[in-house]
Amino acid sequence: MPVYFDERYVSSPHRFETTRKSQHLADHLVRVDANVEIVDPRGAVPVELVEALIGRLHDPAYVQALQDGDDIELAETSGFTWGPTTWSFATAHSHGIVAAIQYVAAHGGRAGSLSSGLHHASPDGGSNFCTINGLAVGAAHALTGLETPRRVMILDFDAHCGGGTHAHLLQFPELGIGVHGDAVQIDLSVSGVDSYRPHEPHHLRLRSLGSGSDEEYLAEVRSALRKGTEAWEPGMIVIYNAGVDPVNVVSFDDPMETIASREDLVMEFVQDKPAVFTLAGGYTWDGFTEDDITALHHEMIWRWASPVWMG
Ligand SMILES: [Zn+2]
Predict the structure, then answer these.
(1) Could you tell me the distance, in angstroms and rounded to a whole number, from the CA of residue 284 to the centre of ligand 1?
(2) Does 3.40.30.10 match the CATH number of domain 2-310?
(3) Distance from residue 148's CA to the centre of ligand 1 (Å)
């Protein structure tokens, strides 16, 4: 399974999980997972195509600010310090998703990108450690950049919800990118950091969970996946925003086992659907080490890469 990554992913001047952990994970995957091939997205899709998509989806003032840093307040709305590499850093995280979409549209099966810092970013700025919304860029590519347009289902199981993605999707029709509902978001959040009022057919479940609520969380995952099954139509591509930061927000009894069980449930949903993943959240807070976060993300990736799950 191709997993897209290159050195731009970790080139932000701001040190934070979102800007560094993909390197750690790429190194880990090369060592331990023979079913994964780390691929540079620039060999699959030209940078100019991704930049054109980003330009189409965003307020020109925001793109300009990310490129030259002149409007420093706007350039740092993600919360990350701006630097000359910020634009290519943010572009790369979208580039991998576009390359993954391109791959599964042509070949079927699954692919992924070690991207994060996506779903809070909106058409006019960054937010909460998200600079450019690669989920929206990927969805726009599926709807306008492929030989045959493909509808999209965004499954967002990051601890936080995708308010930025929702804002992008609502704008798609006026930008000439499909019609309302061509890209559907199914969102399960366990934190109140971001919120939005979902327009049908989008679905948001915001649930606050106490300690030891491993089973309650998994029940919410099942329920969200049922919504996904109801909204699924043949020909769609799944984009899974696979944050493992519910372990940072909810005090699970067994975080590793709960994330592993979640990924089993996601695989039951994905089966042989064309699907791409992104990393999203997962942080070294509350006693979690970098190796723990890598292991949590790998619970998803090895399942996706395994031929056993090809249905
Ligand atoms: Zn998150």
Answers:
(1) 13
(2) no
(3) 32
Domain ranges of the chain: 2-310
Q: Kindly give the distance from the C-alpha atom of residue 78 to the centroid of ligand 1, in angstroms, as a whole number.
A: 13
CA of 26 to the centre of ligand 1 (A): 20
When pLDDT is averaged across residues 76-82 and rounded to a whole number, the result is 96
Question: How many other C-beta atoms lie within 10 A of the C-beta of residue 223?
Answer: 14
Look at the block and give the residue holding tokens 């395994």: 306
Going from the Cα of 126 to the center of ligand 1, the distance in angstroms, rounded, reads 14
Query: What gap in Å lies between CA 128 and CA 179, rounded to an integer?
Result: 28
Contact 127, 211 (CB under 8 A): no
Reported confidence tier of residue 192, pLDDT bands at 50, 70, 90 = confident
CA distances from 147 to 34, 143, 206 (A): 31, 10, 37
Cα–ligand 1 centroid distance for 130 (angstroms)? 10
SS3 of 157, please?
A: coil
What's the CA gap between 127 and 132, in Å, rounded?
Answer: 9
* Tens digits of residue pLDDT in 210-257: 999 999 999 999 999 999 999 999 999 999 999 999 999 999 999 999
249 CA to centre of ligand 1 in angstroms: 9
Cα of 117 to ligand 1 centre, how many Å?
A: 8
Report which residue type is found at 283: Y
Between the CA of 90 and the centroid of ligand 1 the distance, in Å, is 17
DSSP per-residue codes, 126-137:
-BTTB-S-HHHH
